[in-house]
Design a protein that fits this description.
The complex is a heterodimer of chains A (241) and B (353).
Chain A lengths: L3 E4 L4 E5 L6 H17 L4 E6 L3 E6 L6 H13 L11 E8 L6 H9 L3 H10 L2 E6 L6 E4 L14 E4 L3 E5 L2 E4 L4 E3 L2 E5 L20 E6 L2 H13 L12
Parallel strand pairs in A: 5-13
Antiparallel strand pairs in A: 1-2, 2-4, 3-4, 5-12, 6-7, 6-13, 8-11, 9-10, 9-12
Chain B lengths: L1 E6 L5 E3 L19 H10 L8 E4 L4 E5 L3 E9 L2 E3 L2 E3 L5 E3 L4 E4 L3 E10 L3 E2 L28 E4 L8 E2 L17 E5 L8 H9 L2 E7 L3 E5 L14 E2 L4 E3 L7 E3 L6 E2 L3 E5 L4 H5 L6 E2 L1 E3 L2 H20 L2 E2 L7 H6 L10 H5 L1 H6 L3
Parallel strand pairs in B: 14-23
Antiparallel strand pairs in B: 1-4, 1-12, 2-3, 3-10, 4-9, 5-8, 5-10, 6-7, 6-9, 11-12, 13-24, 14-21, 15-16, 15-22, 16-19, 17-20, 18-19, 18-21
The chains are: A alpha+beta (241), B alpha+beta (353).
Chain lengths: 241, 353
């Protein structure tokens, strides 16, 4: 893996590691982002890890692009040879069949499966948060079982609720804010993925792992009530290493 | 201390410096489309340059204040009236309680700014008061302002009404039509054939009506990507020129998505992005290439020049106002300015300096 550097204007640059989606490349990008955060160089304004590239924003008054490139390459060269430790694991409660009425049944029909089979496939997989983007807290999840890969709808639907758990192509997601979407939705979580008023507003970060745990309607209602009261703050299964 | 909105354009929003460092969590900056214009309006009110102020486009707006405040308008030119008095831009004025301030539709450019002494005050969301319409964050409930919205003001600085030492061309810190919009190639320029890059730099593009705080679509020239119009989604910045399958370039602005799956042929130089975003629909625009180093140098120089201009504001017409009158323009404690002061605005507007 050899990075290439590209200017994104005069206040940001991009370090690219090829143009493929795979967990190892993504882990390398996230590792570099974490080490760049830890370095806290004056003049760095944004650190945005994506599937296979890292966008770094800077203020040229404090730090020039050429200097940042040199430092970034030195930081890349000082990476560990050993692969990454696993990211935080979130067991996200999911009320299957909720979120968008009828979508789970439609998907099962489309695939020639029972809804229970779809639920077993979807909740049996472990997903990787490749990146956060598009909207506040919106996580792009890889690891959707191939049997569930489904094209997006041609016409996006309006007003998909916050917490809806969806499938778009070969990716999965949790809707972090309500809004229009062309994805199909198999369930709904009572957790808040994005809570602008919370001390830690974004639940997920790139590199995290996600599993969906089926819950009953009663349990989902109970969790939602405790989240609303502020009595329940979701925690990961394992602390970050 | 509150203001009340009486009429509003659909694009009347609260803005401040915006949110920094949150693109990795999917939150773009928001903040003003033309930061220099907002900084000027604020400085004229003796506010910090990025104090929360109002941004508007399209039809104008009207508002009242329950206390005497100073205000200033910058950015696109527009008709400024308090009661039946017509006032000048590029300087601050007093708005007394009970008076209605009416701002007309921006002319010649798109985005205008109204700053109020003390700055708008409301609880910040994710560290900023800037309205992010697309994400529904900040300002008032994350939305455009509506009639009868009430907004609080912060404590006012002890300062007189101010004006620019020398008038600017228009009310902008820069001339809209001062040469081509400069670009830095990349990050995905390699997806485009050399003749397409040549077209980008030689043919005129048109400003289309498809525009908002998120992005603006340019028309007139198609830029096919020989490498395809889909990339593995990666990070974007304000100024990124995305080229979707239509071939028509899309320039991202303050409220853009933080990541995108279209190739980005080039990025607008930071010094020229507000100038491009201020161009009215139908305007013709040409692009010219510069290096990243040149872009950075221009930015650094422009920041310095901006600080000089904002640091060099002077009290309005010191020769014609007695010190007693100047003192009475000091509004700390909510002393309403006497009519003599507010009444001089019309004369100052006609001063040929």
């Amino acid at each position: 893996m050899t990075p290439t550097l590209h200017p994104a204007g005069d206040r940001a640059l991009v370090l690219e590691l090829g143009d493929r989606i795979d967990a190892e490349t993504n882990a390398r990008i996230i590792d570099l982002a974490d080490r760049l955060d830890a370095a806290a160089w004056p003049g760095v304004t944004e650190v945005v890890p994506t599937y296979r590239s890292l966008l770094v924003g800077y203020d040229p008054v404090i730090l020039r692009g050429a200097e940042l490139e040199a430092r970034l390459m030195a930081l890349w060269d000082s990476r560990d040879a050993s692969p990454q430790a696993a990211g935080r694991l979130w067991k996200v409660p999911c009320l299957y069949g909720a979120g968008v009425e009828g979508d789970l049944d439609d998907l099962a029909r489309l695939k020639g499966l029972s809804t229970d089979e779809v639920i077993a496939l979807h909740s049996g997989a472990e997903y990787r948060v490749y990146m956060i983007g598009f909207a506040p807290g919106f996580a792009y999840l890889g690891g959707l079982p191939e049997l569930l890969h489904t094209p997006r709808l041609r016409v996006p639907r309006q007003n998909i609720p916050e917490g809806a758990i969806g499938i778009g192509g070969q990716q999965a997601n949790i809707n972090s804010v309500a809004g229009p979407s062309g994805w199909r939705f198999v369930g709904w979580t009572p957790w808040r993925i994005f809570d602008p008023g919370a001390p830690d507003p974004f639940l997920l970060r790139a590199g995290d792992r996600v599993r969906f745990v089926p819950v009953s309607a009663d349990d989902a209602r109970d969790i939602a009530a405790r989240v609303a009261e502020g009595a329940l703050r979701p925690t990961p299964e394992n602390a970050a290493p | 201390m509150t203001i009340e909105i009486h009429s509003a354009s659909p694009m009347l929003t609260v803005q401040d410096a915006g949110r920094s460092g949150l693109r990795r969590f999917g939150v773009s900056t928001a903040g003003p489309i033309d930061p220099d214009a907002m900084a000027l309006a604020n400085a004229l009110c003796a506010n910090p340059p990025m104090a929360a102020a109002l941004e508007f486009a399209g039809p104008g707006c009207a508002l009242r204040s329950d206390t005497a405040i100073r205000f200033a308008v910058a950015g696109a030119d527009c008709d400024i009236r308090v009661g039946d008095r017509r006032l000048a831009s590029g300087e601050s004025h007093v708005l007394a309680p009970g008076e209605t301030l009416r701002l007309g539709a921006p002319q010649g450019a798109v985005w205008a700014y109204l700053a109020l002494s003390g700055g708008l005050d409301m609880a910040p969301v994710l560290g900023s008061r800037a309205t992010h319409l697309r994400s529904g964050l900040g300002g008032v409930e994350g939305r455009s302002l509506r009639p009868s919205d009430r907004l609080g003001l912060g404590p006012q600085a002890d300062a007189p009404c101010l004006r620019l030492e020398r008038p600017l061309k228009g009310t902008n810190l820069r001339d809209l039509h001062s040469g081509p919009i400069r670009l830095i190639l990349g990050p995905q320029s390699a997806r485009f054939a050399p003749e397409t890059l040549e077209r980008l730099l030689s043919e005129p593009f048109q400003i289309t009506p498809q525009r908002d705080r998120m992005a603006m679509v340019l028309g007139g020239v198609e830029l096919p990507a020989t490498g395809g119009h889909d990339i593995v989604s990666d990070g974007t910045v304000p100024g990124s020129i995305q080229v979707p399958g239509s071939g028509l370039p899309l320039v991202l602005l303050a409220e853009s998505q933080t990541t995108g799956g279209y190739p980005k042929i080039a990025t607008v130089a930071s010094v020229d992005l507000p100038r491009l975003a201020q161009m009215p629909v139908g305007a013709s625009v040409r692009f010219a290439l510069i290096s990243r180093d040149e872009g950075e140098a221009l930015w650094i120089a422009q920041q310095r020049q901006r600080d000089l201009i904002l640091g060099g504001l002077i009290p309005k017409a010191p020769a014609t106002l007695s010190s007693e009158l100047l003192l009475s323009c000091d509004l700390v404690g909510g002393i309403a300015a006497p009519r003599e002061i507010t009444g001089t605005d019309l004369d100052l507007a006609e001063d040929p300096r």
